[in-house]
Request: fold
Amino acid sequence: MALLGGHEKKHKVTIVGSGNWGSTIAKIIAENTRANKELFEEEVQMWVYEEDVSIPKTSPHYDEAVGDAPQKLTHIINKYHENVKYLPGIALPSNIVANPSLVDAVQDSTILIFNLPHQFIRNVCDQIRGKIVPFARGISCIKGVNVSDEGVSLFSEWIGDGLNIYVGALSGANIASEIAAEKWSETTIAYDPPPMDNSRAPTPRSQSPNVTMTVTEPPADMQHRDARGRKSKAKLTPVPAEYPPLDHECFRTLFHRPYFHVQMVSDVAGVSLGGALKNIVALAAGFVDGRGWGDNAKAAVMRIGLMEMVKFGKEFFGETVRTGTFTESSAGVADLITSCSGGRNFRCAKKAVEKGITVDEVEKQDLNGQKLQGTSTAFEVNSFLKARGLEMDYPLFTAVNSILLGKASVDDIPNLVSETEKKPLSIL
Ligand SMILES: NC(=O)c1ccc[n+]([C@@H]2O[C@H](COP(=O)([O-])OP(=O)(O)OC[C@H]3O[C@@H](n4cnc5c(N)ncnc54)[C@H](O)[C@@H]3O)[C@@H](O)[C@H]2O)c1
Ligand SMILES: O=P(O)(O)OC[C@H](O)CO
Reply:
Protein backbone atom coordinates (compact mmCIF):
# COMPACT_ATOMS: atom_id res chain seq x y z
CA MET A 1 0.00 0.00 0.00
CA ALA A 2 1.41 3.42 -0.93
CA LEU A 3 1.70 5.92 1.91
CA LEU A 4 0.72 9.58 1.81
CA GLY A 5 4.08 10.72 0.47
CA GLY A 6 3.73 8.19 -2.38
CA HIS A 7 6.23 5.80 -0.78
CA GLU A 8 5.49 2.42 0.74
CA LYS A 9 8.02 2.67 3.54
CA LYS A 10 8.92 5.29 6.09
CA HIS A 11 12.30 6.19 7.51
CA LYS A 12 13.12 5.09 11.01
CA VAL A 13 15.39 7.47 12.94
CA THR A 14 17.91 6.75 15.70
CA ILE A 15 19.87 9.31 17.69
CA VAL A 16 23.21 7.86 18.73
CA GLY A 17 23.94 9.84 21.89
CA SER A 18 21.89 11.52 24.60
CA GLY A 19 23.95 14.27 26.20
CA ASN A 20 23.03 17.95 26.39
CA TRP A 21 22.93 18.34 22.59
CA GLY A 22 21.97 14.75 21.83
CA SER A 23 18.81 15.04 23.96
CA THR A 24 17.97 18.44 22.44
CA ILE A 25 18.29 17.11 18.89
CA ALA A 26 16.19 14.07 19.89
CA LYS A 27 13.46 16.47 21.03
CA ILE A 28 13.53 18.35 17.71
CA ILE A 29 13.46 15.17 15.65
CA ALA A 30 10.73 13.51 17.68
CA GLU A 31 8.54 16.62 17.24
CA ASN A 32 9.11 16.41 13.49
CA THR A 33 8.59 12.65 13.09
CA ARG A 34 5.27 13.13 14.91
CA ALA A 35 4.33 15.97 12.55
CA ASN A 36 5.44 14.13 9.37
CA LYS A 37 4.14 10.60 9.78
CA GLU A 38 3.95 10.11 6.01
CA LEU A 39 7.77 10.25 5.84
CA PHE A 40 9.00 8.97 9.20
CA GLU A 41 8.17 6.35 11.81
CA GLU A 42 6.83 8.35 14.75
CA GLU A 43 8.91 6.52 17.35
CA VAL A 44 12.51 7.76 17.64
CA GLN A 45 15.15 5.57 19.22
CA MET A 46 17.75 7.35 21.37
CA TRP A 47 20.82 5.39 22.42
CA VAL A 48 21.76 6.23 26.01
CA TYR A 49 25.13 5.42 27.54
CA GLU A 50 23.64 3.81 30.62
CA GLU A 51 24.40 5.35 34.00
CA ASP A 52 22.95 5.18 37.50
CA VAL A 53 21.52 8.57 38.38
CA SER A 54 19.90 9.93 41.54
CA ILE A 55 17.00 12.30 40.99
CA PRO A 56 17.68 15.47 43.00
CA LYS A 57 15.18 16.55 45.66
CA THR A 58 14.56 19.76 43.72
CA SER A 59 13.23 17.81 40.71
CA PRO A 60 9.45 17.43 40.26
CA HIS A 61 10.20 13.74 39.57
CA TYR A 62 11.73 13.17 42.99
CA ASP A 63 9.93 10.26 44.64
CA GLU A 64 10.09 10.04 48.45
CA ALA A 65 9.72 6.25 48.24
CA VAL A 66 12.86 6.00 46.06
CA GLY A 67 14.76 8.84 47.72
CA ASP A 68 18.37 9.27 46.58
CA ALA A 69 18.70 5.67 45.42
CA PRO A 70 20.32 5.62 41.96
CA GLN A 71 18.11 4.59 39.05
CA LYS A 72 18.96 3.70 35.45
CA LEU A 73 19.03 6.83 33.29
CA THR A 74 17.07 5.04 30.53
CA HIS A 75 14.35 4.13 33.05
CA ILE A 76 14.12 7.76 34.21
CA ILE A 77 13.92 9.12 30.65
CA ASN A 78 11.25 6.61 29.57
CA LYS A 79 9.18 7.10 32.74
CA TYR A 80 9.36 10.89 33.18
CA HIS A 81 10.27 11.96 29.60
CA GLU A 82 13.12 14.05 30.88
CA ASN A 83 16.89 13.56 30.79
CA VAL A 84 17.39 14.71 34.37
CA LYS A 85 21.18 14.48 34.16
CA TYR A 86 22.08 16.06 30.80
CA LEU A 87 19.02 18.20 29.94
CA PRO A 88 17.20 18.84 33.22
CA GLY A 89 13.93 20.79 33.23
CA ILE A 90 13.07 20.09 29.57
CA ALA A 91 10.08 17.90 28.67
CA LEU A 92 10.97 15.38 25.97
CA PRO A 93 8.30 14.10 23.56
CA SER A 94 6.90 10.73 24.61
CA ASN A 95 7.78 9.18 21.22
CA ILE A 96 11.47 9.16 22.21
CA VAL A 97 12.51 5.73 23.43
CA ALA A 98 15.70 5.71 25.53
CA ASN A 99 17.56 2.49 24.72
CA PRO A 100 20.69 1.30 26.58
CA SER A 101 21.53 -1.22 23.81
CA LEU A 102 23.40 0.46 20.98
CA VAL A 103 22.93 -2.43 18.55
CA ASP A 104 19.22 -2.65 19.29
CA ALA A 105 18.76 1.14 19.01
CA VAL A 106 20.22 1.31 15.48
CA GLN A 107 18.55 -1.84 14.18
CA ASP A 108 16.39 -1.21 11.09
CA SER A 109 17.02 2.54 11.21
CA THR A 110 17.49 4.20 7.84
CA ILE A 111 18.56 7.55 9.32
CA LEU A 112 21.28 7.66 11.99
CA ILE A 113 22.06 10.89 13.83
CA PHE A 114 25.46 10.79 15.55
CA ASN A 115 25.50 13.15 18.52
CA LEU A 116 28.02 12.45 21.25
CA PRO A 117 31.35 13.84 22.45
CA HIS A 118 33.95 13.00 19.81
CA GLN A 119 36.17 10.98 22.14
CA PHE A 120 33.52 8.21 22.28
CA ILE A 121 32.65 7.85 18.59
CA ARG A 122 35.34 5.28 17.71
CA ASN A 123 34.07 2.76 20.24
CA VAL A 124 30.47 3.34 19.17
CA CYS A 125 31.22 2.75 15.48
CA ASP A 126 33.18 -0.42 16.29
CA GLN A 127 30.09 -1.82 17.98
CA ILE A 128 27.62 -1.16 15.16
CA ARG A 129 29.79 -1.92 12.11
CA GLY A 130 27.93 -4.48 9.97
CA LYS A 131 24.82 -4.23 12.17
CA ILE A 132 23.05 -1.34 10.51
CA VAL A 133 20.80 -1.08 7.48
CA PRO A 134 23.23 -1.06 4.51
CA PHE A 135 21.46 1.82 2.77
CA ALA A 136 21.20 3.98 5.91
CA ARG A 137 22.30 7.60 5.70
CA GLY A 138 23.61 9.69 8.58
CA ILE A 139 24.13 13.17 9.96
CA SER A 140 26.97 13.93 12.36
CA CYS A 141 26.26 16.64 14.94
CA ILE A 142 29.70 16.11 16.48
CA LYS A 143 31.92 19.17 16.82
CA GLY A 144 35.45 17.84 16.53
CA VAL A 145 37.96 16.52 14.02
CA ASN A 146 39.53 13.11 13.75
CA VAL A 147 43.30 13.27 13.85
CA SER A 148 45.47 10.23 13.22
CA ASP A 149 48.99 9.53 11.94
CA GLU A 150 47.58 9.64 8.41
CA GLY A 151 46.26 13.16 8.86
CA VAL A 152 43.08 14.96 9.74
CA SER A 153 39.62 13.83 8.68
CA LEU A 154 36.04 14.82 9.36
CA PHE A 155 33.93 12.71 11.67
CA SER A 156 31.18 12.63 9.07
CA GLU A 157 33.59 10.96 6.62
CA TRP A 158 35.32 8.83 9.20
CA ILE A 159 31.97 7.42 10.39
CA GLY A 160 30.74 7.01 6.81
CA ASP A 161 33.88 5.18 5.66
CA GLY A 162 33.79 2.90 8.70
CA LEU A 163 30.12 1.99 8.35
CA ASN A 164 29.88 2.13 4.53
CA ILE A 165 27.16 4.74 4.56
CA TYR A 166 27.01 8.40 3.53
CA VAL A 167 27.08 10.88 6.45
CA GLY A 168 26.50 14.65 6.27
CA ALA A 169 27.10 17.19 9.04
CA LEU A 170 25.00 19.57 11.16
CA SER A 171 26.62 22.52 12.94
CA GLY A 172 25.68 26.04 13.91
CA ALA A 173 25.39 28.68 16.60
CA ASN A 174 23.56 26.20 18.76
CA ILE A 175 23.88 26.34 22.53
CA ALA A 176 21.71 23.37 23.42
CA SER A 177 19.99 24.77 26.51
CA GLU A 178 18.61 27.75 24.52
CA ILE A 179 17.27 25.53 21.73
CA ALA A 180 15.79 23.05 24.21
CA ALA A 181 13.88 26.02 25.69
CA GLU A 182 12.65 26.76 22.14
CA LYS A 183 14.45 30.07 21.79
CA TRP A 184 14.97 30.82 18.09
CA SER A 185 18.27 29.87 16.46
CA GLU A 186 19.67 28.86 13.07
CA THR A 187 21.72 25.86 12.03
CA THR A 188 23.54 24.63 8.93
CA ILE A 189 23.23 21.12 7.55
CA ALA A 190 25.79 20.06 4.96
CA TYR A 191 24.53 17.16 2.90
CA ASP A 192 25.95 16.29 -0.48
CA PRO A 193 23.74 13.42 -1.62
CA PRO A 194 25.59 10.51 -3.24
CA PRO A 195 24.84 10.38 -7.01
CA MET A 196 23.14 7.02 -6.63
CA ASP A 197 20.47 8.58 -4.40
CA ASN A 198 19.34 10.63 -7.38
CA SER A 199 18.59 7.51 -9.44
CA ARG A 200 16.82 5.22 -7.05
CA ALA A 201 17.68 1.56 -6.60
CA PRO A 202 15.17 -1.13 -7.52
CA THR A 203 13.07 -2.38 -4.63
CA PRO A 204 14.89 -5.27 -2.96
CA ARG A 205 13.12 -8.63 -2.61
CA SER A 206 13.22 -8.64 1.15
CA GLN A 207 10.47 -6.61 2.77
CA SER A 208 12.46 -5.97 5.92
CA PRO A 209 15.43 -3.59 5.86
CA ASN A 210 17.77 -5.89 7.75
CA VAL A 211 21.47 -6.31 7.27
CA THR A 212 21.31 -9.61 5.41
CA MET A 213 19.34 -8.06 2.55
CA THR A 214 21.09 -7.95 -0.83
CA VAL A 215 20.85 -4.69 -2.72
CA THR A 216 22.13 -4.02 -6.23
CA GLU A 217 25.68 -2.59 -6.29
CA PRO A 218 25.85 0.91 -7.77
CA PRO A 219 27.64 1.32 -11.10
CA ALA A 220 31.26 2.54 -10.78
CA ASP A 221 30.40 6.00 -12.12
CA MET A 222 28.06 6.46 -9.17
CA GLN A 223 31.00 6.45 -6.74
CA HIS A 224 30.55 9.26 -4.26
CA ARG A 225 33.27 11.87 -3.79
CA ASP A 226 34.47 12.98 -0.38
CA ALA A 227 34.81 16.54 0.94
CA ARG A 228 38.23 16.87 -0.72
CA GLY A 229 36.82 15.75 -4.08
CA ARG A 230 38.47 12.30 -3.92
CA LYS A 231 36.65 9.02 -4.51
CA SER A 232 34.95 8.11 -1.25
CA LYS A 233 36.24 5.01 0.56
CA ALA A 234 32.71 4.03 1.57
CA LYS A 235 31.04 1.40 -0.58
CA LEU A 236 27.56 2.86 -0.62
CA THR A 237 24.32 0.98 -1.15
CA PRO A 238 21.50 2.83 -2.93
CA VAL A 239 18.36 3.70 -0.99
CA PRO A 240 15.50 1.51 -2.29
CA ALA A 241 12.82 3.33 -4.27
CA GLU A 242 10.10 2.39 -1.80
CA TYR A 243 11.53 4.92 0.70
CA PRO A 244 11.13 8.72 0.49
CA PRO A 245 14.31 10.18 -1.08
CA LEU A 246 16.99 11.11 1.45
CA ASP A 247 17.63 14.53 -0.01
CA HIS A 248 17.89 18.12 1.26
CA GLU A 249 14.11 18.39 1.56
CA CYS A 250 13.86 15.25 3.66
CA PHE A 251 16.58 16.35 6.09
CA ARG A 252 15.19 19.86 6.29
CA THR A 253 11.80 18.38 7.21
CA LEU A 254 13.44 16.23 9.87
CA PHE A 255 15.35 19.07 11.57
CA HIS A 256 13.54 22.36 10.89
CA ARG A 257 11.33 23.72 13.68
CA PRO A 258 9.76 27.16 14.17
CA TYR A 259 12.49 27.78 16.77
CA PHE A 260 15.29 25.95 14.88
CA HIS A 261 15.77 27.19 11.34
CA VAL A 262 17.78 25.06 8.94
CA GLN A 263 19.97 26.14 6.03
CA MET A 264 20.96 23.26 3.74
CA VAL A 265 24.37 23.46 2.04
CA SER A 266 26.81 21.02 0.41
CA ASP A 267 30.13 22.03 2.01
CA VAL A 268 30.52 19.19 4.53
CA ALA A 269 34.17 20.02 5.25
CA GLY A 270 33.53 23.73 5.90
CA VAL A 271 30.58 23.03 8.20
CA SER A 272 32.42 20.32 10.14
CA LEU A 273 35.63 22.32 10.52
CA GLY A 274 33.73 25.42 11.64
CA GLY A 275 32.14 23.44 14.48
CA ALA A 276 35.39 21.79 15.53
CA LEU A 277 37.87 24.66 15.32
CA LYS A 278 35.70 27.35 16.92
CA ASN A 279 36.04 25.43 20.18
CA ILE A 280 39.78 26.25 20.27
CA VAL A 281 38.99 29.92 19.67
CA ALA A 282 36.30 29.87 22.39
CA LEU A 283 38.95 28.73 24.88
CA ALA A 284 41.12 31.69 23.83
CA ALA A 285 38.16 34.04 24.29
CA GLY A 286 37.58 32.60 27.77
CA PHE A 287 41.25 33.04 28.66
CA VAL A 288 41.37 36.74 27.74
CA ASP A 289 37.98 37.43 29.33
CA GLY A 290 39.05 35.65 32.51
CA ARG A 291 42.18 37.80 32.53
CA GLY A 292 39.87 40.84 32.60
CA TRP A 293 40.93 42.25 29.24
CA GLY A 294 37.42 42.99 28.00
CA ASP A 295 35.65 42.90 24.67
CA ASN A 296 38.41 44.33 22.46
CA ALA A 297 40.76 41.48 23.32
CA LYS A 298 37.98 38.96 22.82
CA ALA A 299 37.20 40.41 19.38
CA ALA A 300 40.90 40.20 18.49
CA VAL A 301 41.16 36.47 19.26
CA MET A 302 37.90 35.87 17.39
CA ARG A 303 39.27 37.71 14.32
CA ILE A 304 42.55 35.81 14.34
CA GLY A 305 40.76 32.55 15.13
CA LEU A 306 38.41 32.95 12.17
CA MET A 307 41.42 33.51 9.86
CA GLU A 308 43.08 30.35 11.17
CA MET A 309 39.86 28.37 10.71
CA VAL A 310 39.60 29.38 7.04
CA LYS A 311 43.34 28.79 6.46
CA PHE A 312 43.15 25.33 8.05
CA GLY A 313 40.17 24.39 5.88
CA LYS A 314 41.79 25.55 2.64
CA GLU A 315 45.21 24.10 3.46
CA PHE A 316 44.10 20.61 4.42
CA PHE A 317 40.77 20.14 2.62
CA GLY A 318 41.50 22.08 -0.57
CA GLU A 319 39.49 24.55 -2.56
CA THR A 320 36.25 22.55 -2.19
CA VAL A 321 35.97 24.25 1.22
CA ARG A 322 34.11 27.52 0.75
CA THR A 323 35.26 30.65 2.57
CA GLY A 324 31.57 31.66 2.71
CA THR A 325 30.78 28.70 4.93
CA PHE A 326 33.02 30.28 7.58
CA THR A 327 32.02 33.91 6.98
CA GLU A 328 28.33 33.61 6.09
CA SER A 329 26.77 30.49 7.62
CA SER A 330 25.58 29.69 11.12
CA ALA A 331 28.26 26.96 11.23
CA GLY A 332 30.97 29.60 10.77
CA VAL A 333 31.08 33.09 12.19
CA ALA A 334 27.75 32.81 14.03
CA ASP A 335 28.89 29.74 15.96
CA LEU A 336 32.17 31.48 16.70
CA ILE A 337 30.30 34.44 18.20
CA THR A 338 27.88 32.39 20.32
CA SER A 339 30.61 30.03 21.52
CA CYS A 340 32.83 32.95 22.53
CA SER A 341 29.89 34.55 24.37
CA GLY A 342 28.30 31.77 26.39
CA GLY A 343 29.54 28.31 25.36
CA ARG A 344 30.94 25.79 27.85
CA ASN A 345 34.48 26.00 26.44
CA PHE A 346 34.42 29.78 26.88
CA ARG A 347 32.91 29.65 30.37
CA CYS A 348 35.28 26.96 31.67
CA ALA A 349 38.38 28.70 30.23
CA LYS A 350 37.27 32.00 31.76
CA LYS A 351 36.71 30.45 35.19
CA ALA A 352 40.03 28.57 35.01
CA VAL A 353 41.92 31.85 34.61
CA GLU A 354 39.85 33.61 37.27
CA LYS A 355 40.39 30.82 39.83
CA GLY A 356 43.95 29.91 38.83
CA ILE A 357 43.07 26.26 38.14
CA THR A 358 43.12 24.15 34.97
CA VAL A 359 40.30 23.96 32.43
CA ASP A 360 40.09 20.20 33.07
CA GLU A 361 39.47 20.88 36.77
CA VAL A 362 36.66 23.34 36.00
CA GLU A 363 35.13 20.82 33.57
CA LYS A 364 35.06 18.14 36.28
CA GLN A 365 33.73 20.49 38.96
CA ASP A 366 31.07 22.35 36.98
CA LEU A 367 29.76 20.28 34.07
CA ASN A 368 28.15 17.27 35.79
CA GLY A 369 29.50 14.78 33.23
CA GLN A 370 29.22 16.98 30.14
CA LYS A 371 32.40 16.98 28.08
CA LEU A 372 34.35 19.90 26.64
CA GLN A 373 35.47 19.40 23.06
CA GLY A 374 37.89 22.34 22.80
CA THR A 375 40.66 20.97 25.03
CA SER A 376 41.06 17.69 23.15
CA THR A 377 40.59 19.41 19.75
CA ALA A 378 43.33 21.94 20.63
CA PHE A 379 45.67 19.09 21.53
CA GLU A 380 44.79 16.97 18.47
CA VAL A 381 45.11 19.86 16.02
CA ASN A 382 48.43 20.85 17.62
CA SER A 383 49.89 17.32 17.24
CA PHE A 384 48.84 17.36 13.60
CA LEU A 385 50.42 20.81 12.96
CA LYS A 386 53.55 20.02 14.97
CA ALA A 387 54.18 16.81 13.00
CA ARG A 388 54.19 18.96 9.84
CA GLY A 389 56.27 21.83 11.25
CA LEU A 390 53.32 24.21 10.90
CA GLU A 391 52.72 25.36 14.48
CA MET A 392 53.87 28.92 13.79
CA ASP A 393 51.45 29.24 10.83
CA TYR A 394 48.58 28.89 13.32
CA PRO A 395 49.75 31.06 16.25
CA LEU A 396 46.41 31.29 18.07
CA PHE A 397 45.68 27.54 17.92
CA THR A 398 49.26 26.95 19.10
CA ALA A 399 49.00 29.52 21.91
CA VAL A 400 45.80 27.91 23.24
CA ASN A 401 47.45 24.51 23.37
CA SER A 402 50.53 25.95 25.09
CA ILE A 403 48.35 27.64 27.73
CA LEU A 404 46.40 24.42 28.34
CA LEU A 405 49.70 22.58 28.84
CA GLY A 406 51.02 25.28 31.18
CA LYS A 407 53.84 26.17 28.76
CA ALA A 408 52.56 29.72 28.16
CA SER A 409 50.34 32.16 30.02
CA VAL A 410 47.46 34.32 28.89
CA ASP A 411 49.77 37.34 29.08
CA ASP A 412 51.85 35.79 26.26
CA ILE A 413 48.94 35.80 23.76
CA PRO A 414 49.51 39.30 22.30
CA ASN A 415 53.15 38.49 21.47
CA LEU A 416 52.44 34.98 20.28
CA VAL A 417 49.91 36.19 17.70
CA SER A 418 51.64 39.46 16.72
CA GLU A 419 52.95 38.05 13.41
CA THR A 420 49.35 38.06 12.14
CA GLU A 421 49.40 41.90 12.26
CA LYS A 422 52.07 41.96 9.53
CA LYS A 423 50.02 39.97 7.03
CA PRO A 424 48.45 41.98 4.18
CA LEU A 425 44.67 41.82 3.94
CA SER A 426 43.38 39.43 1.32
CA ILE A 427 41.15 40.77 -1.43
CA LEU A 428 37.92 38.79 -1.31
N1 LIG B 1 25.84 20.99 24.38
C1 LIG B 1 25.79 21.91 23.41
O1 LIG B 1 25.36 23.07 23.62
C2 LIG B 1 26.23 21.54 22.02
C3 LIG B 1 25.70 22.27 20.95
C4 LIG B 1 26.07 21.95 19.66
C5 LIG B 1 26.96 20.89 19.45
N2 LIG B 1 27.44 20.19 20.49
C6 LIG B 1 28.33 19.06 20.18
O2 LIG B 1 27.55 17.88 20.26
C7 LIG B 1 28.37 16.77 20.62
C8 LIG B 1 27.72 16.05 21.78
O3 LIG B 1 27.71 16.90 22.90
P1 LIG B 1 26.63 16.83 24.08
O4 LIG B 1 26.52 18.23 24.58
O5 LIG B 1 25.39 16.15 23.65
O6 LIG B 1 27.35 15.88 25.14
P2 LIG B 1 27.68 16.16 26.67
O7 LIG B 1 28.80 17.12 26.83
O8 LIG B 1 26.42 16.44 27.37
O9 LIG B 1 28.39 14.75 27.04
C9 LIG B 1 27.98 13.79 27.79
C10 LIG B 1 27.52 12.58 27.00
O10 LIG B 1 28.57 11.63 26.87
C11 LIG B 1 28.07 10.34 27.22
N3 LIG B 1 29.15 9.47 27.67
C12 LIG B 1 29.87 9.54 28.81
N4 LIG B 1 30.77 8.53 28.84
C13 LIG B 1 30.60 7.84 27.68
C14 LIG B 1 31.24 6.71 27.12
N5 LIG B 1 32.24 6.10 27.74
N6 LIG B 1 30.82 6.27 25.91
C15 LIG B 1 29.83 6.91 25.25
N7 LIG B 1 29.18 7.98 25.72
C16 LIG B 1 29.58 8.43 26.94
C17 LIG B 1 27.07 10.66 28.30
O11 LIG B 1 26.18 9.60 28.47
C18 LIG B 1 26.39 11.87 27.71
O12 LIG B 1 25.38 11.50 26.81
C19 LIG B 1 29.75 17.36 20.91
O13 LIG B 1 30.59 17.18 19.80
C20 LIG B 1 29.49 18.84 21.12
O14 LIG B 1 30.56 19.67 20.76
C21 LIG B 1 27.08 20.48 21.77
O1 LIG C 1 29.17 24.76 24.97
P1 LIG C 1 30.19 24.52 23.90
O2 LIG C 1 31.44 25.35 24.09
O3 LIG C 1 30.47 23.05 23.70
O4 LIG C 1 29.53 25.07 22.57
C1 LIG C 1 28.23 24.70 22.32
C2 LIG C 1 27.87 24.87 20.87
O5 LIG C 1 28.81 24.24 20.05
C3 LIG C 1 27.67 26.31 20.48
O6 LIG C 1 27.21 26.35 19.15
Remarks:
- The chain has two domains: 11-266, 269-422.
- Residues 204-217 have pLDDT under 50 and may be disordered.
- The radius of gyration is 22 Å.
